[in-house]
Amino acid sequence: MKPSTMRRCSYRWITQQPVHLPLDKTRLILFYLGINYLIIFVDVFIAHALNRFIPIYEWIPIVFSPIAALAAILLLIKPELSLTKFFNILTNFSGVVIGILGFGFHLQGSSAGNVVSFSGLTSGNPVFAPLAFIALGSIGLLTTLDDHPNSRKYNITQKTRWLLISTALWFLATALVAYFDHAQTGFTNLYTWIPLYMGIFAAMILLFQAYSYPERGLSLLLGTTMFLSFVVGLLGFAFHLSADLAGRGNILLSRVFYQAPGLAPLLFCDLGIWGVLVFLEPLTIKEEEST
């Protein structure tokens, strides 16, 4: 990430005219990445507190999350320093490893002996929750790539393409999480299928955009899809909150994390924002001069 790429500049997205932003894409992504790590810190802390942090390695993602947020903020403030760049790479690579190990531990906790059953995946530990660390770690690593606006394929930079692909895979993982969470109810309510289809559809649009010229129609479809994802997340949060209250007027943490996870649907809101951020494109020097 060279200092020249950190200048204030414009981006072309849905509109045919450039959209002027006070910060460039990389800094916006780093800022939002830090926020995401802090949200995960709160989520994991509450979830692992229910087990009284036993076994002791349950502290690892809790301690790691604020460190990762700090790495993102430091790189945002001092992008020209090699030390902050190295710290960001090391931290986010560790995040990917933690996500893989966490998935293994959660999978082991949901299995009966050496057998992983469908019932085990739909009850007990949220098996796929640690995949969020893999997603954030991957995006964090991609922020260190140079975003050369004059070197493009399909009229988007290589960095944008990889960010689009990473967000698409995160949508697929979220769809998988929604499927196994809602399988506990037997999909008695048809609307519980919506997150699954939303996640798959959004992933397809993002992957298609990654390997297509960003013409206006496709860009509008991507923007609309991200908006719908945000709406699905808000509606899901309302439905989950209603299920957690269940006429009691109060919320028990055990119900929030093991019956209708209250924060889970908000991931679709989060991903809707990610989809908008990663599709921002830096203008070439010639385009900047023309504006």
Describe the structure.
Strands 2-1-3 form a three-stranded antiparallel β-sheet, with no helix packed on it. Helix 2 (60-77) runs antiparallel to helix 3 (82-109), helix 3 runs antiparallel to helix 5 and helix 8 (216-245) runs antiparallel to helix 10 (266-278). The protein has 291 residues and is mainly α. The chain contains eleven helices and three strands, in the order E-E-H-H-H-H-H-H-H-H-H-H-E-H. It has one domain (3-290). A hairpin with a 6-residue loop joins strand 1 and strand 2 (19-20). It has helices spanning 25-49, 60-77, 82-109, 118-121, 131-142, 158-183, 194-210, 216-245, 253-258, 266-278, 285-290, and strands at 10-12, 19-20, 281-282. The chain is 64% helix and 2% strand.
- State mean pLDDT (0 to 100 scale): 81
Beta-strand content estimate: under 5%
Q: How many separate domains make up the residues?
A: 1
Q: Which structural category do the helix and sheet elements fall into?
A: mainly alpha
Report on the biggest sheet. 3 strands, antiparallel
Based on Cα principal axes, name the global outline: globular
Helix content: 55-70%
- Terminal CA distance reads 24 Å
Radius of gyration: 20 Å
Total strands: 3
- Which segments are poorly predicted (pLDDT under 50) over 5 or more consecutive residues? 1-7
Number of helices: 11
Strand order of the largest sheet: 2-1-3
Order of helices and strands: EEHHHHHHHHHHEH
Question: Which tags fit this structure?
Answer:
disordered N terminus, 2% strand, 3 strands, mainly alpha, 291 residues, 3-stranded antiparallel beta sheet
